[in-house]
Design brief:
The protein is α+β, with helices and mostly antiparallel strands. Helices cover 30% and strands 22% of the residues. It folds into two domains: 24-171, PurM-like, N-terminal domain (60s Ribosomal Protein L30, Chain: A, 2-Layer Sandwich); 187-344, PurM-like C-terminal domain (Phosphoribosyl-aminoimidazole Synthetase, Chain A, domain 2), CATH 3.90.650. The protein has helices spanning 31-45, 48-51, 61-64, 90-103, 124-141, 196-204, 222-231, 245-257, 272-281, 303-311; strands at 70-78, 84-85, 88-89, 107-119, 144-153, 161-171, 187-190, 237-240, 260-264, 294-298, 320-326, 333-336, 342-344. A hairpin with a 5-residue loop joins strand 12 and strand 13. The longest helix has 18 residues, at 124-141.
């Protein structure tokens, strides 16, 4: 995907940070702050729109209109602990999460902002590592980070680093997706193993001292979604299953559309490591967070085409049809268990895991 470039501003030499840790001076608005921004962020994100160093990014509406007829905008904040985990880090998570929030609305992601709140004392090398991860992830996703903000707070005022990203994308004509559009008979699909992110984060904290090889599924899903929509243009609903897992998404879908949803435990893809991990801790993997999984509702006559398209993409090889929408029990999600019974899958009450994304 080609992202619009607007300027050819002459480049000047960027400032550098020569101390090992972030200090309050780096948030003071002077040379130290400018050096931090230029060294860590401008140098990593490096594009002509950002290089103007204005207080806003500017776009030609005519250029945006070449991608579609509606603008999509989203924002999210990321506060994960630990900052770096198997399969990713807070920077990769911020880019993927915002790209996915645009993509599940049918938008082509184009531009992102990056605002950071940094705790005094954070290692500058850690900040560089995370900015580099954001830059690589954005480049892979075909989006530009075009504006941002930096704040430094005192020790104890935040946990090392918080990131907010806002995204802008464009939806092409003919794509209509919504949580209230699901109809009885629609097939419910997921694009692979569930709960990987939540299990990986809890394991990475070291509280359980388990040796299970768990990795986050953190990934940008817009390419997979593009393939899905091309194969199943009647797709009614898409949502990335983050906090609260697929159980929360399914309940939101059932309530908004006033339909029932029935899923089958034996069709629901779970890694044995995640299943065992959840059993040890007394967790339900349906509520574990994901950062590279989506739930979609597709008309029954397009379900097989959707499944084939998803399985043909690297991020959807383990896709499955896990259930369907029904006209019974409006607003309820029911699972058919492997023991031949049924159980209600309710909305998550409280929190299973804090600081997960």
């Amino acid at each position: 995907m080609n992202v619009i470039q607007l300027n050819s501003t002459p480049r000047r030499k960027l400032g550098t940070v020569n101390v090992p840790k972030v200090t309050m001076a780096h948030g003071g608005g002077g040379k130290a702050m400018r050096d931090l921004i230029e060294d860590v962020f401008v140098g990593a994100f490096d594009n002509e729109t950002l290089a103007t160093m204005e207080d806003q990014a500017r776009f030609r509406l005519s250029d945006l209109a070449t991608y579609g007829d509606r603008l999509a905008m989203t924002t999210d904040s990321y506060v994960i602990h630990p900052l770096v985990f198997p399969g990713g880090d807070i920077g990769k998570l911020a880019i993927c999460g915002t790209v996915n929030d645009l993509a599940v609305g049918g938008a082509t992601p184009l531009y992102l902002s990056c605002a950071v709140i940094i705790e005094e004392g954070l290692d500058v090398d850690m900040l560089r590592q995370i900015a580099g991860s954001m830059a690589r992830t954005a480049a892979d996703a075909g989006v530009l980070i075009v504006t941002g903000d930096t704040k430094v707070v005192g020790r104890g005022a935040c946990d090392k680093l918080f990131i907010n990203t806002t995204g802008i994308g464009v939806i092409r004509e003919g794509i209509e997706l919504g949580v209230n559009r699901v109809r009885p008979g629609d097939a419910i699909l997921v694009n692979g193993f569930l709960g990987d992110h939540g299990a990986a984060i809890l394991n990475a904290r070291g509280d359980m001292a388990l040796s299970a090889p768990l990795e986050s599924d953190c990934a940008a899903l817009h390419g997979l979604i593009g393939d899905l929509l091309a194969a199943a243009p009647g797709t009614r609903f898409l949502r990335d299953a983050t906090r609260g897992g697929i159980a929360t998404v399914l309940n939101e879908m059932a309530e908004a559309s006033q339909i029932g949803i029935e899923i089958h435990e034996e069709r629901t893809p779970l890694r044995e490591e995640v299943r065992g991990f959840s059993e040890i801790l007394g967790l339900d993997p349906l509520y574990l967070a994901n950062e590279g999984k989506l739930v979609c509702a597709v008309p029954p006559d397009q379900a097989e085409a959707a499944l084939t398209a998803m399985r043909g993409h690297p991020l959807g090889r383990d896709s499955a049809i896990i259930g369907s929408a029904t006209d019974g029990r409006p607003g309820r999600v029911v699972m058919h268990t492997v023991f031949g019974g049924r159980r209600i899958v309710d909305m998550l009450v409280g929190e299973q895991l804090p600081r997960i994304c």
